[in-house]
Each structure stands twice: as C-alpha cells, then as structure tokens.
Amino acid sequence: MGEAPVFFVDNLQDELSNGFVLKSKGLETSTDVGDRTFVIGGANNDSASSIGVQIYEKSTGKWVIPTVLGTKPKPCKGHSAILLNEDRIMIIIRGSTQDDCIWFLEVDTKYVKEQKKVLGTEVVAWSKGVRGDAEKPIVISGPSGVGKGTLINMLMKEFPSMFGFSVSHTTRAPRNMEKNGVHYHFTERSVMEKDIKDGKFLEFASVHGNLYGTSLEAVEAVADSGKRCILDIDVQGARSVKASSLDAIFIFICPPSMKDLEERLRARGTETEEQVQKRLRNAEAEIEQGKSSGIFDHILYNDNLEECYENLKKLLGLDGSAPTNHKSSPKGIDLPLNHSVSKIDNKILINCETPELGNASKNLIVLDVSSLKGGAPGRTRGLNVYAIDSFSDGLNGIHKLS
Ligand SMILES: Nc1ncnc2c1ncn2[C@@H]1O[C@H](COP(=O)(O)OP(=O)(O)OP(=O)(O)O)[C@@H](O)[C@H]1O
Ligand SMILES: Nc1nc2c(ncn2[C@@H]2O[C@H](COP(=O)(O)O)[C@@H](O)[C@H]2O)c(=O)[nH]1
Q1: With CB atoms counted within 10 Å of each terminal CB, which end of the chain scores lower, N or C?
Q2: Domain segments of the chain: what residues?
C-alpha cells in the first residue's frame, strides 16, 4: 500500500535551454518517471489547441520537446497527474464533465518504445480513458470476393444496434453504388500518406495496388457509440492490428475453392478483367497466410452463405445461447474544479470538495485501474468508477458509476 503524491509545477524556468518558452500559468503538473520529469499542460501560447508536454532530463539538465502521438486533450483549467505502473501518467482534467475527464499520457509503454525506434525521437502518446468494458472489436479478413462484405451486411442488418462498421480509407476509386463516408473514405494518396505519417492510422496496407487503412478515429467512433466494431481488412492489416494494442477477435473467411472465388468475383462485376486476375493471384497467398499465420482465432468456410452466417453468429454468441442486448453506455462523472488526488494500490482516489455545501460535504470518487486494457493509439478501456457520498460524515452511500 503506498500513496503517490501529486506535484504541481512551482519553479520552472521561464526560458528553457532549448529555446522553448514556457509561460507558466500555474496550470502545469510535473511527474517524475525515473530520471525524467514530465511537465504536462499549460499552453505555450494562447492559441494552443491542446495540452503541451515537455520533458526535463535531470541527468543532462536539458529540456526535450517530444513527438506527441494520439488524440490530445483540449487545454483545460488545470489537471492532476499521477504516475501508473511507471509507464503512463493518468491525467484527471479539472472542471470537466462526462467522458472527457480521464486521459493517459503513455511515456514508456510498448507502443511508445516501438514508436521511438520508428521515429528516432523522444515520443509520448495520449489515449483517452473510457469507463467500463466495450466488447472486443471483430476483425474479418479473407480474399477479395469471398463474401466478407455480404456477411458483415447481414450481421449489421440483423443486429443494427449492436454492431458498427469501421469505415476504412482507400485510394481506390468508388464503385457505382459506393458512398463516401459510408463504404469508405475515398481519399488522395498524398493526403492518406500524410495522415499515416501523422500517426492517424491503426493499420494500413497496399492491397491490389491501392492503399487501404483503418484510422484510429474510425474504430473509436464505433466504440464511443457503444457498438461493437467490425473491421473488414486484408491479412496484412490483420497482422498489424494483431501487433497493436487493440484487443480483437480475428476471423478468416475462406472460399470453398479458387473456382468458386473466381465465379463470385466475376459475378459481382465490379472489377476489370485485369483487376480480377490480380485479386485472384493475391488470394492464393492470402488463403495460405490466413490458414497458417496464427493470426486468426477462427476460420469459417463460406460455401453455403446461410450456413456460414449461422456459424459466424454462433462464434459471436448470437445464436440464442447468449443475450443479444448490447450494454448501455456507462454514465459520466462531473469532476469539480476543486479536488485532490491520491493513489492507493490500483485505486485512484479523487477527493471532491463542494464548497457551497460546507466542509462536511465531500465526495470521494474512486477510479479502479486494475483492469486497464488497450491504450495509445486509441482509448484506454476498463476503468471502473465508484462514488462514495459525504464520506467525512460517514459512508452514506456507495454508487458504482460504471
Ligand atoms: N456463399 C456464397 N455463395 C455464392 N455467392 C456468394 C456467397 N457469399 C457471397 N457471395 C457473393 O460473392 C460476391 C462477393 O462477395 P463480397 O462482395 O461480400 O466479397 P468480399 O469478400 O467483401 O470482397 P472484397 O474483399 O473485394 O470487398 C457477391 O456478389 C456476393 O453476393
Ligand atoms: N489492410 C486493410 N485492408 C482493407 C481495408 N479496407 C478494406 N480492405 C481490404 O481490401 C480488399 C479490397 O477491398 P475492395 O473494397 O477494394 O474490394 C479487401 O480484402 C478488404 O478486406 C483497410 O482499412 N485496411
């Protein structure tokens, strides 16, 4: 059992040695991680659109401005910071409401270590804290024409409130009936390449001569709407997702034969002869990898469509053996401006004061961080939140908020 203190910056230099000017407004926190101090918050100019991060290296006495990945929290009236597991800092935004009050700045997680190698710079990564457990996303892969889209459409039609589709980006041209933003985000290669460089994609791959990718936003938009996310991506993309922090179920759809696959692709009539040939050539390698790579948790054969659909529902627990109602979104918490934060084991205690109700009225919000999942890039899930009312007068009531 131990209590981690919360630090507030009180004596930072105005002009940093690397030329970075920190106009301290008393809104920053500093958190020590090994021999580095992470200074978070306080816009370095008035038009800043997000919370800034700087690192002070105690051994060299130098300030470093890291590459900041992930969606960043907006500048705020102040925040509290507390170190978790030596690899991430939990940020509790003051005066914020609902779903925007808990954030994580990853400073030494697996993802951050990988990105440091890739980018060759100091890296930190933001992820937003989400209460409760969303069900695992479903990754569906398989060769072009095997019936992935058909199966996904059947699932979304039968369970519209349960599933949401991750709308990918692609550089290929839209087909006749395809709508931008619904089937794909159709995009220019140069724009997509820049977004990939800026860390906006969970995965991307060159597929049949075009660029395809899943943006973090596409997956998180579905999860934030309380639905279970379905990704229709190729095997290369599935491999990247498997290596990421997204905890998903991986399903590979196999055709009964190459002959059937060819017939389906031709019958769909959406590709030129040259494209059909290219997709069929790629299909052989994809089927080989799908069966042997160890990426996939389940392989389904799509011979008879109805049978394959029933098998898909069965493995997702939708065949009547499990309840089909999706969980309702957890309630939010209103975090007051005045609060203090401490840590005991896997619990963060937020001590909230309500001045208008006098000293006797204090509420304690408990964040249980023992079951955190996921993380940057994306969301950190599995936060459990409890409120204990008026604890200074005795334990009047304990409410589980999520
Ligand atoms: N079991 C099946 N038997 C016969 N035809 C099928 C079967 N499943 C799907 N199809 C048909 O095969 C064609 C290809 O299906 P679909 O477009 O769903 O493939 P896909 O895997 O999503 O392809 P892509 O990866 O290119 O998007 C469609 O015309 C669809 O109606
Ligand atoms: N790696 C990714 N692959 C994707 C993504 N979106 C779709 N795909 C795959 O591309 C092929 C071709 O699709 P089509 O619509 O042009 O027929 C297919 O296998 C899809 O699964 C993505 O975001 N990433």
Answers
A1: N
A2: 6-132+330-401, 138-315
Three-state DSSP class for 205?
A: strand
189 flagged as catalytic: no
The residue with tokens 């060819």 is: 262
Say how many Å lie between the CA of residue 140 and the centre of ligand 1. 13
Residue nearest to atom 6 of ligand 2 (CA): 233
**pLDDT surpasses 60 at 19:** no
Class for domain 138-315, per CATH?
Answer: alpha beta
Is residue 279 part of the annotated active site? The answer reads yes
Total-model pTM: 0.66
Q: Is 36 a catalytic residue?
A: no
Nearest ligand to the C-alpha atom of residue 254: 1
pLDDT at 319 over 90: no
Q: Which residues form ligand 2's pocket by a CB distance below 6 Å? A: 144, 148, 168, 172, 203, 205, 207-208, 212-214, 232-234, 236-237
- 3-class SS letters over 214-265: EEHHHHHHHHHCCCEEEEECCHHHHHHHHHCCCCCEEEEEECCCHHHHHHHH
ipTM of the complex: 0.99
Q: Which ligand is nearest to the CA of 301?
A: 1
Work out the average pLDDT over 1-8. 35
Q: Which residue has the higher pLDDT, 317 or 105?
A: 105
Q: Tens of pLDDT along 254-300?
A: 999 999 999 999 999 999 999 999 999 999 999 999 999 899 999 99
Which band of pLDDT confidence, cut at 50, 70 and 90, is reported for residue 12?
A: very low
CB 16 within 8 A of CB 22: yes
CA 234 to ligand 2 centroid distance, Å: 5
